[in-house]
Amino acid sequence: MLLINGEIWTMDGDALPKGYVQVQDGRITGVGPMESRPMAGEDEEIIELGGRFVLPGFVDAHSHMGLYSTASGMEGDDINEDADPCTPHLRALDGIDPLDEAFGDARRWGVTCAVISPGSANPIAGQVCAVKTRGRWIDRMAVAQPVAVKLALGENPKMTYSQKPQSPVTRMGTAALIREHLQKARRYLQDIEKAEADDELDLPEFDARLEALLPLLRREIPAHIHAHKAYDILTGLRICEEFGLRCVIVHATEGYQIADILAQRQVDAICGPIICARTKPELAGQTIQNCMMMAKAGVRVAISTDHPEVPGEYLLMSASMAHSAGMGLEQVLCAITIDAARIAGLEERIGSITPGKDADLLVFSGDLMRVGAKPDMICVDGIWIE
To answer: What confidence tens digit (pLDDT) does each residue in 281-295 have?
Structure first.
């Protein structure tokens, strides 16, 4: 398949005012200016773009899509396993309904990949995964599992467990539980390493919860830390520095207040939802300028919907609102493409129009930041679907 005469926003370098994209077997095999376009194969499909924009598929960096099935009530609510405050061994992948209408809704508005997380009721909530929005079988839709382990600070664990006869009911209790499990996992890892180095020592008894935390301690994946308030964000940084963890701040509602600290420590942030009201105390400091202010300070930022808080189809609209608040066009597009992919550790597969990556492509006409902007054509893994 050969797309020609388009304005190609590769998100991996300068835009090509008049270029081509070549796709074969679900992957991008070529991209460049029209003067260097290859000859089409005998049976190769040629798509004339007529100057329209081509972008990589959008990446929603934080979502609960499919974990709360549309219009289903309690029986379809699998976001929070709130019978236990620390559940690192749970996998979001096991609770996702891939046939939920939300996937189709988001896809029709350009979201081709969603990073799906357990909820934020638990201090340690479980494992985050990334999936394509096209498909019927979640195992085939999965791009990566796990992408991260979800931790939560602030109001949500307090509100959840204050109704139950168990900890945590304070921010101190939340942090203490996270530390306790990380310390157990560190000792568990040390025992494994000792046994692997000495044939006379036995491996420790298998513990699914601690096993799930090992990729964090080995820095293979980051912690995704749900935090709104500036001081909760800093608690997350403190814990991660104590245990040598990589971290990403999810929501980061008051991130603009400490943007210089996040930038100095090279901590990424996922902003969102942007289209929402200040409905609880943690959101009192919310401002639409948050993404812009953090990006200006040098923080790598992604924009998310936090579906179902804001429906996944409003990802581009969320980006356009950040643009209206002073964030540059290229910055906001990066925040829903390549930077979102980088924060998820998926930049080798998605997020830009680069040879070797998945052929997730969007074709647009007109102003991308206008209200109601929607792709004319959508390609996921080299298949046109809308």
So the answer is: 999 999 999 999 999
